[in-house]
Amino acid sequence: xxxxxxxxxxxxxxxxxxxxxxxxxxxxxxxxxxxxxxxxxxxxxxxxxxxxxxxxxxxxxxxxxxxxxxxxxxxxxxxxxxxxxxxx
Length: 88
Description:
This protein is mainly α and 88 residues long.
């Protein structure tokens, strides 16, 4: 029985339209130095705000704001997560 010929696979060459996207991905700059420090400090400030609010029997940091103190504490932590999502 005769042996069949082995097919050679063609070498893949990407289209020229896609190659600029690769260079754009390589040109991403690292994040600024202040970004992680700001994010960590926002986390610490948010947790400290909530801890002080609960341990002071809801009199501090600002008694007249009432439950808005919770929004400020959690808002600081959510803002830090937003900053950390942009960290490279």
